[in-house]
Amino acid sequence: MAIQIGQQAPAFTLYDSEKNKVSLADFKGKNVLLLFFPQAFTSVCTAELCATRDNIAAYNDANAQVFGVSVDSIFTLNKFKAEQSLNFPLLSDFNKEVSTAYNSIYTDWIFDMKGVSKRSAFIIDKDGIIQYAEVLESAGEQPNFAAIRQTLSTLN
Predict the structure, then answer these.
(1) Listed residue (118, 155, 129) closest to 24, CA to CA
(2) How far apart are CA 51 and CA 63, in angstroms?
(3) By Cβ atoms counted within 10 A, which residue in 13, 36, 49, 92 is the most buried?
(4) What strands lie across the sheet with 31-36, from one edge to the other?
(5) Using CA atoms, how far apart are residues 38 and 146, in angstroms rounded to an integer?
(6) pLDDT of 140 higher than 90
C-alpha cells in the first residue's frame, strides 16, 4: 500500500555505513528527508546524492536530517560515501524491510535483480508524519527537489 501524506511514517532501525544503528525515532523533533536509491556507484544515484551533498546547507537550514537508503551492504555504502564525499548518512536496508514498508521496492529490476529500492523521497516531519511522498517507477528519473525544498520550507 502506498505511503500517504498525513500518515505516521513507518518506524525503522537500520545500520549506517559506519556500522551505527540509526532509528527514525531518534530524530523526533527534527524533519527527516529519506532518499531511497537503487544502487551505489550507478550514474543517476551518484548524480542525485552528489547534488544533495552540494545542497546540504538548504536541508540543514530546514532542520532536516537527510538519509540515503539502499539495499546495498554497509561496506558498499561506506566506500561509495567516501569516494563521493557525501556529507549525510547512508543507511543499508540489506534485508529490504524498510524499502518494502515504504512501498519503494522493485519486484524486478535490471539484469534480473529482485528487491532493489525504487528511487523515492519522503519528508517526515518533527512529529513523525509523512509530509511529502514521491516514488518513481523509472530509476532514470530524480525526485522533484524543488518540491522537496518547498515542502521543507513550510515545516518550520
Answers:
(1) 129
(2) 18
(3) 36
(4) 21-23, 13-16, 90-92, 64-70, 31-36, 120-124, 130-135
(5) 21
(6) no
CA distance 103 to 105: 6
User: For the structural domain made of 30-153, what CATH number should be given?
Assistant: 3.40.30.10
Provide the 10 A C-beta neighbour count for residue 19: 10
Angle between helices 43-54 and 74-84 (to 10 degrees): 60
pLDDT of 106 reads 80
Cell numbers for 132: 511529502
**For the chain, domain boundaries:** 30-153
Residues with a known catalytic role: 45
Enter the pTM of the model: 0.94
